[in-house]
Amino acid sequence: MLKYSSIIVGILAFFAASAHASPPGVVISQQVDVNNYKHYHQDLLYTYTGQSRGLAGAQHDLARDNIKNEFMSFGLSVALEPFVYVATTYHNVVATQPGTDNPTQTVVIGAHFDSVNCPGSDDNATGTAMVMELARILSQHRSSKRLRFVAFDREEQGRRGSIAYVAAHGADNTVMAVTADMVGHDSGAYGMDLYSKATSSAVTNGVASAITTYGNGLASFTNFGNFSFSDHWSFENVGIPAVVIIERCYTCNTNYHTVNDKTDFSPTYINYNMIADLTRSVAGYLVDTVPLSLWGDKDNDGDVDDTDFTEFRNCFGNPAAPSCYAFDKNMSGTIDCTDWPAFKAAHLTSQGRIPLLTPDDFANVILQIDTTPSKVCVCDLNTDTILDGLDVQAYVAAATAP
User: Fold this and answer.
1) Cα end-to-end span (Å), the chain
2) Which percentage of the chain shows pLDDT scores above 70?
3) Residue 159, Ramachandran bin (φ over 0: left; ψ between -120 and 50: alpha; else beta)
4) What is the DSSP string of 165-193?
5) Fewer CB within 10 Å of terminal CB in the chain, N or C?
6) Are the CB atoms for 153 and 90 separated by under 8 Å?
7) CA dihedral 310, 137, 143, 345 (to 10 degrees)
8) CA distances from 307 to 246, 338, 342, 355 (A)
9) pLDDT tens per residue, range 359-371
10) Whole-structure pTM over 0.90, yes or no?
11) How far apart, in whole angstroms, are the C-alpha atoms of residue 264 and residue 157?
């Protein structure tokens, strides 16, 4: 991040009533995998002695391309968006996940991937790896609004990448931005500072509440004012609500902006448990606020259960009206055979299969579904184009498997 020297008074975020985690928020936030995070942070972002993502850093472009490739592996649409700084072209890495209910509204989740001329393990590989892990998880679920996962470049030279991003995406109807900048070093508070203008308080307080709800004891401290030291300011400066999340007392990290900001400085330099608690918190915030839900979970109870199976059958073969969006996994506009495999896989791993569909129940389902070729796939589990007792056996065997 850009160094900011003013004294900030942190206000611990207390709430009159405890927030309650939503069922999909619990399920999706628990998909955070600290080993995935470590892979991104340690293996893909070059955070060890002698490495650099700084100006002319040998690993800068390698890290950028690794981020792009990871985003692509999640099935996201990815672009390297160019901008010019001091006669040199740099690129933001921009990954897009389409929305269903409100596809023209955009939520940005971002972090800068560049460093000063050092490994930048905390500043800001920690924030970048968090965005990557959030992209991995959230890309597998249904988002009401369009999500943009952005790795900004050249923040250390004055937020150049995020300024360029905002200028290029003025027509995107961005409704909020959540950014992370140095979130991995614990100076003793086991907590995060949240900085924003007062006009972004709904976002900032929402993230603080989510930390209380999903953060496993992680603390949060809200700070309101004109803080221009990180990429959130590029959004706030044009009226878009935004917040930056930073480890509590980031200047207490004596390795900040030095060659010792490296993963191998000490085994405890980066606190991965703290980062995992933060990542779960941000995932829970986004799930509850955007909102997101599990594909196939029509009643949004966090489980693709037998109730959802009935709703899938009712929507099958019909255009994907809002009441059926939950089942249109390929977003083709119709609930059809191409949506069935994903729904079947989610349903067969459901916690709500107890009481389980019995062979008699499933036989009745078969009888209620049209036997036209376009609908055969719903129950033709052995794909022989015939709906018969073998399909009942196949379903029950899969549903009762350990």
Assistant:
1) 48
2) 82
3) left
4) HHHHTTTS-EEEEEEESS----SSS-EEE
5) C
6) yes
7) -20
8) 42, 21, 16, 12
9) 455 545 544 444 5
10) no
11) 26
Q: How far apart are CA 349 and CA 191, in angstroms?
A: 35
For the residues of 87-98, what is the DSSP string, one character each? TEEEEEEEEEE-
Radius of gyration, alpha carbons of the chain: 23
Domain boundaries, the chain: 11-293, 306-400
Length of the chain: 402
pLDDT in tens, 279-327: 999 999 999 999 999 999 999 999 888 788 778 877 877 777 788 889 8
11-293 belongs to CATH 3.40.50.2000:
no
Cα–Cα separations (whole angstroms), residue 3 to 119, 162, 223, 228, 257: 17, 17, 16, 10, 9
d(CA 59, CA 43) in angstroms, rounded, equals 12
Q: DSSP string covering 354-393, please?
A: SSPPPHHHHHHHHHHS--SHHHHTTT-TT-SS--SHHHHH
The dihedrals phi and psi of 326, each to the nearest 5 degrees, come to -60, -20
